[in-house]
Amino acid sequence: MSCQKGNINRSRPQKHQNHTSFKNNLHDNSQKIKLINTVEVINVCERCKKIIEWKIKYKKYKVLKAPTKCIKCEQKTVKHSYHNICLSCARQQEICPKCGQKCQIVEEK
């Protein structure tokens, strides 16, 4: 345990410190990992972009196998992982396709 219940401050430093950063393709050089590493996260808000990039960086990202249903138009048009709303509905209503909030959307470069 990092700290007891109610005891906010730790009295000792971390026991094991990482010497190198995590590499998601260190032991697995498959085509799937190469595809995931080339995914460009666009058309989402800044917060959702950071979340998806974290998932890619630490090998938690799962590729969407089949299109899923949009929560706005009820059609199977969502083709990106972790998105709930299709891009056409998100552009019409000017919302983020992942979180559904009205915020600044990060566009393509």
Strand order of the largest sheet: 1-2
Overall 3D geometry?
A: extended
Measured as a percent range, the helix fraction is 10-25%
Parts with pLDDT < 50 across at least 5 consecutive residues: none
| Main β sheet profile | 2 strands, antiparallel
Secondary-structure class: mainly alpha
Number of helices: 3
CA radius of gyration:
19 Å
Q: How large a portion of the residues is in β-strands, by DSSP E?
A: under 5%
Question: What is the H-and-E element order?
Answer: HEHHE
Number of β-strand runs: 2
Ends apart, CA distance between termini: 44 Å
Mean pLDDT value: 90
Task: Please explain how this structure is put together.
- It is a single chain.
- The chain is mainly alpha-helical and 109 residues long.
- It has a domain at 31-106.
- The protein is built from 3 helices and 2 strands; from the N terminus they run αβααβ.
- It has helices at residues 31-37, 46-57, 87-93; strands at 44-45, 105-106.
- It has a two-stranded antiparallel sheet with strand order 1-2.
- The chain is extended and about 55 Å long.
- The mean pLDDT is 90.
- It holds the Pfam family DUF2039.
